[in-house]
Amino acid sequence: MLSFLRRFVKRILILAVVVFAVAFVGRGFDMRRGLPLEAWHTYELEEPSVAEIDRADWSHYMRVENALFERVEREIVRAILPEDRTHYNRYSSTSPVYPWRFAKDWNRSSIMMPEGTPVGVVVLLHGLTDSPYSLRHVGKLYLDKGFAVVSIRLPGHGTVPGALRIAKLEQWAAATRLAMREARRIAGDGVPLHLVGYSNGGALALDYTVSALSDDTLTRPDRVVLLSPMVGITPFARFTWVAGLPALIPAFAQSGWLSILPEFNPFKYNSMPVNAAQQSFDMTQKVQAGLKRLQDEGRLGDLPPVLTFQSVFDFTVSTPAVITELYARLPENGSELVLFDPNLNLNNRFGPLVDDSTREEVLAELPALPRSFRTALITNASDATNEVIVRNVEAGATVQNDMLLGLKYPADVYSLSHVAIPFPLTDGLYGLTPDPEDNFGIQTGAVNSWGEVTTFVITVDPILRLTSRMQSNPFFPFMMSRIEAGIAAPKP
User: Into how many domains does the chain fold?
Assistant: First the structure.
């Protein structure tokens, strides 16, 4: 019997090795069939360490940041191959999407001060592969309301995608601490301090807020605003690092990337390294563990009010995790969850193509009434119209209050995507109806391509893959009104 078990285990191990080897080689060759790695993919631009960022003040961080961009210009932009200079390439100085050609390079950290003495201060944290551009409209709202606005470029972002191959979540957390230190320094102690995070920046905002409850050296935010927060993603993401193993062999270097695409977006990487996705998943685990720890200690009541905007359908982050890991745990503290429902009226046209069961599963995660937080569901007024209502349920209430929003779903748009939440329809880069005066060389949100693909000066397939999702928010005015209400609310 023992001999049989040994032979069985041996065969299982041999089979496992064979399967792994086949998957290893298959993954390597599969990525080799895609686009080649360019200089901006292989250039691993190293950012300051956690210790250096924690020692730094804002001026030091800016000096280092400026030096990083000078290196990109010297070692990437000036060295670019001639055949790449005429394409929509953000690293070509002759390209219409070259970031340095704009009046403001939104890849960089900045501080915007209102006229007169600030009545408050806000820190903005952008998402993964993103840049401070993604929260510029929210920042303008705060600025117009008299707030100082601290918008930090997180390490590994805004320069070259290769920088994200070596970036660590600990560096992002350290940069968040630096931005919060600077926010309190420039505004003083007597005014409200808000913390806004988008996507991975939302995870960083939550992580910082949880940490500040146990660390008296950290300034506590008075209010937290989250847009498509990365509280959770698919559980399979914990094994993302396995996809990068073939990259240990130089011939399979492309395997160190989940996607390799042309870099035609001036303020966001289109390519995604394996390391960045793994760091982001680890960030969600840290956030969930922190929230659970607070719950076990009975300290969730110390959290400031949290206002979240989330699409019911979100391919990038887990909407159920936002509900179960965060909101279902919160005591009544003035928090609010805004959910953007799909356009149910399009069910009549698309029929079985629409995955209604997923919507029902997500909404079923909401706690039964009464809830400890306010909810607002943006949904159709009826099955016969694209007009939408806001289905409000106050914290502690058992009845809902429907209010006509006065906005509609655009024709043929089924739902908002992860990337759509922070951008109005008029955004120059992502808007469905971009403002001609808000020009950044390309309008990815307005691409609607019908015809011969050879018409394009760059490969059209990556464009369609990146622009097939709704990239701007038709309900942006409502979102801004809810953020504005939080700005006007008294300091907790």
Answer: 1
The pTM score is: 0.91
Q: Is residue 361 part of a domain?
A: no
- Is 489 inside any structural domain? no
Q: Is residue 282 part of a domain?
A: yes
Q: What CATH number does the domain containing 100 carry?
A: 3.40.50.1820
Mean pLDDT score, 278-285: 94
Cα–Cα distance, 303 to 329 (Å, whole number): 11
- Give Cα separations from 42 to 38, 72, 100, 256, 257 (angstroms): 7, 12, 22, 10, 11
CB proximity list for 134: less than 8 A, separation 6 or greater: 126, 127, 198, 199, 267, 268, 422, 423
Q: Is residue 243 part of a domain?
A: yes
Domain that holds residue 230: 38-303
Distance separating alpha carbons of residues 76 and 121, to the nearest angstrom:
36
The label of the residue with tokens 């893959």 reads 465
Q: How many degrees, rounded to 5, is the angle at CA 68 between CA 63 and CA 71?
A: 125
- Report the C-alpha gap between 150 and 276 in whole angstroms: 24
Alpha-helix runs per DSSP H in 33-79: 39-42, 50-55, 58-72
| 16-20, 33-37, 204-208, range with the lowest pLDDT | 16-20
Look at residue 450 and tell me whether its pLDDT is greater than 70. no
